[in-house]
Amino acid sequence: MRDGSIKRILDKKPALRCRLFPMGFYASTGNYNVSDYPFYDDWNQFTLDNMVFSVHPRQHFYSHTDEGISIALVGHAYDPIHMIASENEILSILAEADEKSFFDEVCSLTGVYTLIWKKDNTWRVLGDASGMQTTFYTVFSDFISISTHVNLIGDMLRLEMDAYIKHLSNYKFFNLLGNSLPGDLTQFSQVKRIVPNHYVEFSSSVKIQRYHTPEIKKISYVQVVDEVSKLLHNNLKLIADKWQRPTISISGGCDSKTTLACANGLYEKFSYFSFISSEEEKVDAEAAHKICNAVLPIGGGGTLKHKIFNFIFLITCFALIRNL
Questions:
Q1: What angle do CA 263, 269, 274 make, to 5 degrees?
Q2: Model pTM greater than 0.85?
């Protein structure tokens, strides 16, 4: 947004403002204008100690303060080990935990979230274990800025794209590896990405620390399968209890078949679908349909109701319109 073109469009078409940085947030210990681009007073405002959060209307924010510890979670989280679906309960447990048990509790969590913790003059920030919700951070002019969107930080602080990243992204094979940059790099030299299973600590300096190191256990393959399937089933049960209309996307591949198998006993609480966006995807969607028709839920009730959404025609029309 260096040339202000997006801002000019949003000023003319306010209905598009909700489409900018969807499901995102911006948090900072510095002052910023919540009435102007990109927030326009439409994002929800929260405070945690001296940090101000602007949270997209479709995003969730939870916070807890107890005995000098303040903690916030942006997104959603579950604990399939202790069967906890409430973010408020999760934050309460984390606020009461000591140094070691805090990270033990964090390692029990799954979901899509950013966790921000404050005690005395120290801030800690970490993301979900798989990095499903990207989290970026910087210390700029002595204040901290954190966001799900690196371009949001860049726009707020008027940062310029790093010359090395320009060179890297123009490399002829770069697009073959996707748009992700290696390590914790971003297009701005001042901004870094939080790597999964690490936290960033802000105090007198910035420290990056790994908090989870897998233990090597001598257990059998069958035990691994039993434990993993139990955790996946617990997580699906929490999802079914938490959300009103949970849905499982089925592709016919190993991941979706494993998810489907682990939902046994909960099938009636989910709906099922596949989509086709190219001719090559038809075989996967049709395989998924056959799998759902072959599944017989425990306790009867017939086969699973599976829908296929075909987007080939719409995608073709959009491509034709774009090329006119």
A1: 70
A2: yes
